[in-house]
């Protein structure tokens, strides 16, 4: 998906290093697991939050850090920004071994299952009560996405479905009428929108985008148990069909790094995407007029649910203080600031305001009821790489595998 800056490419290296290095470089903080942020002593506990994002995100976090003492006088919150998700996950293992890793991080639910199954994120259940955290503050669907085997692994920050974007000017120039609601309608429109300079649709061969297609056909990966389901085959077949028609293009084919760049440069009229398009297009193509729709229907209404959350790392020096700092990051003022950037708050009382603040996303509101978690296999990095490699080999490399053959082969690796 890319510009969302999600964790992924370095996941295997990160997990292998963490498991080994954490064992060798344990900070001996077991006695601090239920720390109280030094209550009543007047001594502050320093808590560090790690995140990757924009300069604007950093300012919002710094403002929150400067005011946290109003609610938690014993916490001194430091913010550490990483340039990208890749650098974050590449750097973290060494930081854990050296005892300088952040205490909690802001991350996305896509790919988080692998970290949870490897024991790198701390379960929060035993900390929630003592920390004074109220999970009822958040919408239940956001809480549920961060539950694994009945345990809560994050405080949700945002929750928003996947989206579909159309270049309004190109659509009108092609003489097209009502906007599409199904993939069949998208495919027909993509053919009419395709010219010598513009492709009808950019389909980034990336698990985020692929997952939105398969979910719209009633599919999903089910943590590796349903990779080769017929619904998934149908979703992947639709992608193949649009490439076969010549109406679809990959960012790589045009020399771009991700789908947003293709869309911003007017090289494709349609694309799957997400809320991050708003901030990106504001800077990259301020004059581009676009329409945002729910993910089109294949056989059903389905899409991914993007739910960012605050996760306490297993080696946090003071887990309870870290959780309290994470909880503070979901205060109304901080959440409202992020809503202005296009991110829908997971806080119940703020969610209704989101579509007033971001009217261009109003059409996707119904999808909040049908969008679901990514549910990648526990070996997420392996799965994502294999999925991309096999599809690219056919679409870009000339291999002759069908969607069923591709998914059957991948399923064999995740029995």
UniProtKB/TrEMBL annotation:
Signal peptide feature range: 1-22
Cross-referenced Gene3D superfamilies: Periplasmic binding protein-like II
MF terms in GO: maltose binding
Protein name: Sugar ABC transporter substrate-binding protein
Annotated family: Belongs to the bacterial solute-binding protein 1 family.
Lipoprotein found in the keyword field: no
Pfam family, one: SBP_bac_1
GO biological process, one term: maltodextrin transmembrane transport
Recorded GO CC terms: ATP-binding cassette (ABC) transporter complex, substrate-binding subunit-containing
InterPro entries: SBP
Keywords per UniProt: Signal, Transport
């Amino acid at each position: 998906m890319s510009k969302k800056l999600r964790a992924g490419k370095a996941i295997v290296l990160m997990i292998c290093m963490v498991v080994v290095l954490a064992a060798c470089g344990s900070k001996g903080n077991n006695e601090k697991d239920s720390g109280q942020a030094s209550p009543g002593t007047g001594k502050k506990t320093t808590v560090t939050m790690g995140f990757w994002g924009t300069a604007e995100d950093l300012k919002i976090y710094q403002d929150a850090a400067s005011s946290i003492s109003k609610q938690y006088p014993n916490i001194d919150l430091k913010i550490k920004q990483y340039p990208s998700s890749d650098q974050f996950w590449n750097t973290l293992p060494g930081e854990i071994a050296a005892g300088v890793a952040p205490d909690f991080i802001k991350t996305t639910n896509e790919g988080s299952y692998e970290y949870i199954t490897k024991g790198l994120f701390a379960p929060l259940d035993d900390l929630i009560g003592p920390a004074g955290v109220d999970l009822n503050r958040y919408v239940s669907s956001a809480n549920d996405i961060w539950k694994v085997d009945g345990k809560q692994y994050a405080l949700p920050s945002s929750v928003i479905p996947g989206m579909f974007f159309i270049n309004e000017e190109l659509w009108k120039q092609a003489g097209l009428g009502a906007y599409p609601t199904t993939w069949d309608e998208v495919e027909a429109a993509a053919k009419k929108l395709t010219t010598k300079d513009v492709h009808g649709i950019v389909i980034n061969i990336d698990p985020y985008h692929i997952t939105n297609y398969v979910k719209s056909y009633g599919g999903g990966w089910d943590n590796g148990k349903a990779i080769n389901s017929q619904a998934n085959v149908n979703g992947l077949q639709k992608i193949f069909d649009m490439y076969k028609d010549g109406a679809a293009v990959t960012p790589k084919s045009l020399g771009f790094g991700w789908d947003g760049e293709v869309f911003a440069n007017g090289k494709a009229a349609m694309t799957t995407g997400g809320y991050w398009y708003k901030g990106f297009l504001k800077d990259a193509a301020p004059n581009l007029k676009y329409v945002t729709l729910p993910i089109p229907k294949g056989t059903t209404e389905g899409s991914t649910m993007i739910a960012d959350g605050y996760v306490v790392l297993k080696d946090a020096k003071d887990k309870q203080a870290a959780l309290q700092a994470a909880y503070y990051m979901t205060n109304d003022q901080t959440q409202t600031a992020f809503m202005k950037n296009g991110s829908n708050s997971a806080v119940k009382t703020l969610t209704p305001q989101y579509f007033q603040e971001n009217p261009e996303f109003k059409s996707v509101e119904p999808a909040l009821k049908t969008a679901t978690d990514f549910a990648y296999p526990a070996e997420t990095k392996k799965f994502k790489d294999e999925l991309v490699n096999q599809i690219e080999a056919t679409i870009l490399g000339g291999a002759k595998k069908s969607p069923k053959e591709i998914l059957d082969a991948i399923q064999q690796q995740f029995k």
